[in-house]
Specification:
The protein is an all-alpha fold. Helices cover 71% and strands 0% of the residues. Helix 3 packs antiparallel against helix 10, helix 3 packs parallel to helix 12 and helix 4 runs antiparallel to helix 6.
């Protein structure tokens, strides 16, 4: 029943990244069991800097992806869409530039702008036009990266504490995975899937506004 419910939610949400993460992570752990020892910690280290690294990684491997995309129709649009991760790389670039050039006062640098920080800070105005009719309220659209979103919401301190807390959860779950048997591996897969999704979605940072945040709290409780 739980599996059918999860599939229904993933299909109904029409969001490819969480669906890919929910399938890819368990498959990797089943095919390569040793990955359960370090996968969650590696993603916990990568996710906070993913907005800086992913565009470079995608740009490096674009020549490998393009031949496969060119086999289909509308090849130019689809190739550009994939390389930019549905325009996410442009949003990240403008958000990072905005933070480094426009956010100068110490209170906002350290503690951010609170929930909906991308709107309160004004950074969403730099990419709202690119979203157009894709979202209902472009100015309130997130930066599509949980840790970059947390940077605007909670500042450097909030982002740092958020990253440390998640890494602690990952370490605890990975160390106790054998004691809990299948449940322990499921917990590692769950936190890994959440982190993988957080690199392209602001699913964790808005806190009570997003369901995955409650999943993170449950996993934190299990880790304790």
């Amino acid at each position: 029943v739980g599996l059918l419910a999860a599939i229904t939610v993933l299909l109904g949400a029409s969001s490819r990244n969480p669906a890919i993460a929910s399938v890819a992570v368990p498959l990797v752990m089943i095919i390569f069991p040793p990955t359960s020892q370090w996968l969650a910690q590696a993603l916990a280290l990568f996710a906070p800097i993913s907005a800086w690294l992913l565009p470079r990684i995608i740009g490096t491997i674009a020549f490998l992806i393009t031949p496969f995309i060119s086999l289909g129709s509308r090849r130019d649009i689809r190739t550009e869409s994939l390389v930019t991760l549905e325009n996410r790389t442009n949003i990240w670039r403008r958000s990072i530039e905005y933070w480094s050039t426009r956010i100068n006062d110490a209170p906002h640098i350290l503690t951010g702008f609170g929930m909906d920080g991308q709107y309160r800070s004004g950074v969403s105005q730099t990419y709202a036009n690119d979203l157009g009719a894709l979202v209902r309220s472009p100015l309130h659209a997130s930066v599509h990266n949980s840790f970059l979103q947390q940077l605007f919401d909670g500042g450097l301190l909030g982002c740092l504490m958020f990253a440390i807390a998640i890494y602690w959860i990952c370490v605890r779950l990975s160390r106790s995975r054998n004691l809990r048997g299948p449940y322990g591996l499921s917990a590692v897969a769950a936190i890994s899937g959440l982190l993988l999704t957080s690199t392209t979605e602001a699913a964790l940072a808005p806190g009570v506004a997003q369901e995955p945040f409650y999943m993170l709290l449950i996993l934190a409780g299990v880790a304790c």
